[in-house]
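[job 4417] fold queue: 2 targets
>>> target A
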Amino acid sequence: MKASILKLKKFFRLEAERGYDNRAVMGGLGTMLHAWQAEARAEGIGDALLEAIQTRLHNYAQYSPQERQAALIDTWRRVEAELGLPPSPPRTPVRRAANPPVEKPAKPEAAPKTPTAPRRRPAPARTRTQGEPAALDAPTTVLYGVGAVNAQRLEKLGLYTLGDMLYHFPRRYDDYSQLSDMVSLLYGQHVTVMGTVRSIANRPVKGGRRSIVEALVDDGTAALRVSWFNQPWMQRNLSVGSQVVLSGQVDQYLGRLTMSNPEWELADKEQLHTNRIVPVYPLAADLGQRWLRGVMKRVVSYWAPRLPDPLPPDLMAAAGVRPLPEALLQVHFPDAPEQLRAARTRLAFDELLLMQLAVLLQKAAWQGQSARRFPPPAGWLQAQTAGLPFALTAAQQAALDDLLKDLDSGRPMNRLLQGDVGSGKTVVAALCMALVAAEGAQAAIMAPTSILAEQHYLTLQRLLVREGGLASGEVRLIIGATPESEKQQIREGLQDGSIKLVVGTQALIQDPILFAELELIVIDEQHRFGVGQRAKLRAKGDNPHLLVMTATPIPRSLSLTLYGDLDLSVIAELPPGRREVNTQLMLPGERRRAYELIRREVAAGRQAFIVYPLIDGEEGEDGETDERKAAVEEQKRLQAEVFPDLKLGLLHGRMSAEEKDKAMSALRDGRVQILVSTTVVEVGVDVPNATVMLIEGADRFGLAQLHQLRGRVGRGGEQSYCILVPTGNNGAENERLKALLESNDGFMLAQKDLEQRGPGQFLGKQQSGFWDFRLASLSDARLIDKARRHAEELLAADPHLSQPVHQALAAAVHHYLSDGKGDLS
């Protein structure tokens, strides 16, 4: 096998192993082809094969992963056939639908045939509108050209009914709306041209097994040679003298400008694939873009104008949004860029408005319930705060006042307590738990990790277990590693009421735990729990008060959406004596400086963290394994080569709960000077003696995560340091690292992180399903503010959306809530 062909095979194999992300070669496969063709031509590879490869792959960067897979498999089969290589089956075969010899004329869309019952689908793919035609629930098989096979292919995209198709939005658009003169074309441009076919012929290649249709098209300013590989029917679709519109990329072959496999349409017909802003839809295997676009055009053109608008006219006018039928037409087949922007804005506004109405209605329902009141006895608060080893900050006192008012309101508390790392949220929650316990009721706090749960337990013991306070046995810890005999004692104590405060992880909801009188639930780092987990704990009481806490600063846009049903208290002040962490960037070649800093701090009696990305095979929040630098191996290397005279500990997510506890205890007790860890150390670990946080591969972390890691140091009175070491010298240009160097403002950093990575990465997949909007963005604060304002005005005028003009909107909200989004926070 020639060297150039071996190289091509290697490129294809690497691309398959990477999931067809177009990164197997620097710059992408398209960039590689030009240099590779010169090498292949020098080895005697024929022009027909080279042109076929160029034709099939020249638009590779624009393909979806499924389209890229099909393109590479087809191209390699062609190489095997041309060069007589033994066939090698592809790793993941992809069947492609055969192209029809001539496009079928589209039938005018009429009211659908009497539908058969659609198949049961996993979840609704759209928001239903009251009064919408019942035919929108018809299966896709009622459409001309959609049989059982194509219907099954559409189901892979979540398209079961005609209504689903209305909300199957394009993933991108190709703007072919501006016609270009052929004389002005430049290599590499994506253009639309219109001209007359002067000649067209079907030329067989390789003994007739393959063919190339070649046409010469001119527009009066110049001529352009156009080719379609292995599509012989194109000679029948186009004839000499016909006017044709072509859209695609300008290529070059033997010094002449060409177009290979462009989209085409006759000029005297409505342009759907050319000469317009062309929608590009998500595809499934065996579905062609051109076919799906045609089906979508028929469905959208007929049914979008027949869809009722759930928004009242006065709300549409006040919000400045387009009618729903117009928005659906324009988001699929826009007439102009500004029309597309307006359409997307309307549809995104609908999504955000429904979410705002849902969270506000849920908040109103929660506030309408009654809960036990806990008024602080006279002098109780002063006695409790006087017994603390420190004075509360003004921000802590203000947050505590909010919580005490909630506990004395007669309705369930439903509050988010937000505070940066080290701001003192736990003591505020502890005082509320102490009040509940003093009145004979019970409180529970649930933490995401055993380490954090144990830390909360020790904090509660230190703050609340004293003379005149709680007894030691009234505060208990239950985690996965708790011995079964002890768990049984705790269960009995909670059921008979002798245990007043319990701290735990998911064991609180997994175990058959019953409470005598659970009146306050505290959930820490609440975004790390799924909605179902929180609901299970809440169900263990009778309308208990709920306090959720987070050390991750929540941007305003998320506060108004995911947490829109919660009252908000913010502790934006650090305790006195805290010094700002000195954050520095060091390139990999400067790592020795960081090690010297650690040595100096350890010599002064202090401790350090060295954090690496996830170890090989360890799962992060996104469920993917990270094969970057392994903390396990690095701990061994650092102990043997860099710090042989010091004691290094190890902490990572694949250790058992008992092993993690031992690692943290060794650090807290001073038996370990340096802890080598993955990001499991990110949340809640409190070691006041630690003054150095060295983060390896810092450019691989999100901003909020980096800020959380930085917050693990600086919790004592000594000057602390956070050293960022990127994976390479270019990592110094990383925007996240620059932002961290410039600011200690957690809220500003959180907003930047949300904008850069999106809510899914920002919050983690536990919350998935509550931000998977089709078009709306949880970083679009302006549109969220608008939706919130109009939702509040609507509910102020009509608290239950019971007025006739709001019936359609009420039905849409009901459908939204019934889709599993009924408990947002």
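>>> target B
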Amino acid sequence: MYQHSRYDFQALEAKWQQQWELEGLDQTPCDPSQPKFYALSMFPYPSGNLHMGHVRNYTITDVIARVRRRQGYRVLHPMGWDAFGLPAENAALDRGSLPQTWTYQNIDQMRRELKQLGLSYDWSREVTTCSPDYYRWTQAIFLRFFRAGLAYQKAAAVNWDPVDQTVLANEQVDSDGRSWRSGALVERRLLRQWFLRITDYAEELLTSLDTLEGWPERVKVMQANWIGRSLGAQIRFETGTGRQIPVFTTRPDTLWGATALVLAPEHPLVPELTTPEQAEVVRIYCNQAANQSEVQRTAETREKTGVWTGSYADNPAHGQPIPVWIADYVLTDYGTGAVMAVPAHDQRDFEFARHFGLTIKVVVEPPTGALDPAAMTEAWTGAGVMVNSGPLNGVTVGKGPGESVAVAIAWLESQGRGIGQVTYRLRDWLISRQRYWGAPIPIVHCPTCGPVAVPTSQLPVLLPDNIQLSGRGPSPLAQLTSWVEVSCPECGQAARRETDTMDTFIDSSWYFLRYTDAQNPDQPFTREQVDAWMPVDQYVGGIEHAILHLLYSRFVTKFLRDQGLLSCGEPFRRLLTQGMVQGLTYFNPHKTGKDRWIPSVQVDPRDPRDPQTGEPLESVYTTMSKSRHNGVAPRAVIDKYGADTARMFILFKAPPEKDLEWEEADVEGQFRFLQRVWRLVHDLPQSSAPAPLDREEQDLRRAIHTAIQAISEDLGEGCYQCNTAISELMKLSNALGDFSRRSSPVYREGVEVLVQLLAPLAPHLAEELWRITLSHPDSVHRQPWPQVDPAALVAQEKTLVIQILGKTRGTIQVPADADRAALERYARESEIARRYIGDKVIHKVIVVPGKLVNFVIA
């Protein structure tokens, strides 16, 4: 046994981690008679070391899992690694090695750190997305999309480094549009790439958000806005060459005010519509646009650019010709790649028209009166009635029945010039990556058969390890002839493998399904196992994943449901988005860029100054990051205070959904609290024989069961207020510390309850106290969750406030069940009444049952 005077956290934490592993304490139970609970944290990218954001995420989920186990649930609580991706490829380039080496070294390091935190993972279900026994099934899922017609190829723009002759990810392009490695100005080029038809599920993805009652409203709104359902019309504009240009608009009612048609530079009709006189300026403009990123092209603050093709199209509202322009703010893969410009009623079009001198025609009259196009300083986008719009004149602007949008759609359809249409902002999911470190796309390109699926029996298509990474030229896979050149699986002719790899979001869009049957060598999962565990009951992760990861996971789940592989249509029943961990950050307001951030180790907090210039520094709490030098390594905290203290601080400092400010003093406060609990339990004497409870014992027992009730509510489903749960533990600890007779059986009950309630939060300390100090034979983590005794919560006495003329003069203790008459009698007979009333006449007595008695005297 450890001496109670010293809480040796390093020794006891290592001991219990080893013992739990030997006992298989955290293995997933298979008893179907127990209700299931699937607790899951978003798995990490193996970057090498844990950061405090990881600690917060994983500790919150661990508390949830530990409480649910003890409440009688069979709990699935797994962990794995989102291990493919660009950082590993970049690290391999820097080190002259393969990404596999760097990745698996990091996984080993981070796994050790996770185990040091005492997280109750079932490590037998660990998954690693870069392992062939995982990406085999990622490829199989891709082939299901392919065979269902939901995976296809089309041309799409990529970032192209003209010096290194290679495709760049968005992260490899700096704010000036230059390559991270060569420094060259990045160009935009069209390449054939693979997409998944997520748009086929757009309506269901939108409407089923309403079923996600356990999700933060903020996240659901973000997803709804990303999907972006719009009701409008597709309108056909005729050109002089007899071509039709379809345009989708949510404001077909403003068609009469359209004074130009604007195409994306990449629109396929641009060459045909460009007249010989405009050919050179159009060519130059399109080349310039090709070098701009999508973000640059659509920035609202950027001055509008464009060029006229020399051609016209007829406005279908009145048949008059309007010029056809090209502008880079129109994107070829959004909508139809063409927009009708209505300058009077769209701000972007207004700026474009003013810049190029296009006609501005008003078709909406505001409630304040008619608009003069020449005097307008901005577009009118508000309410009003339609004017200068033929059959729509006088119609109220709006999208409701009988209002302008509906009337315009009806007119277009009756004239055969357009059709009502629902569209979505959501675009199909581009999954192609011209990288090495990703799951190979299992397609063979045959000159006769076209794209052919690799037979399932030949999966996985393995990544070759005999490659040379240079960061230059085509995809590393495309340069390996021995890997690329194969026979067509259908006809046997010479063919070529697909050399793109898959977006890493593919890997993370189904990993939670693999956990349910992680060791199955024959299938990604069985229907029996996946239906036994899905959906995830509580998912925990950062708000930064609110859209892409969560949306893609919902899409893949719905697709696999439709494929008959599982029953649920939503993967995550409840979602908790934890706040960021922030550190005190020093910066020089006179500097810019990364040099403005000053590491705290170089700063005297009593007089913070720039160590180079001597200038005064300012400070602010910001999210911990390497670039701002404000991070705190979990390993350093664990070495100094222990894992339990790190857990307690990260849980206590703020509610889980709020940002957390790191303070060393608060960490020390939690360390002192755990030391106090250590001493309290070690000082427990032998209990005396049971006897009727006196008042002090009744009060303590009420405090014990009040703590059970409050902490059970704080850690209940959908609540998880760990910070207030720890506050309740502190109250119970104080109540025990104030109790005078430590040999009382009630005191021992309180000590044991304190340890049991502490266990999910500080698992190592609680286990040591439970098994060693309190001499229990089995783990505290296998004990049923403490139950509230309702009788213990009933107070035998209550405090009654006595007032004279509304002013409080003191309190007395009275029976809790005393009625109004009894309360008045106790108050009249009290020493307080005798002292302050004496012989004075009482005119009135006001009794508030259970609270106070107020005497109104002369």
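[job 4417] complete. Note on B: The longest helix spans residues 695-714.
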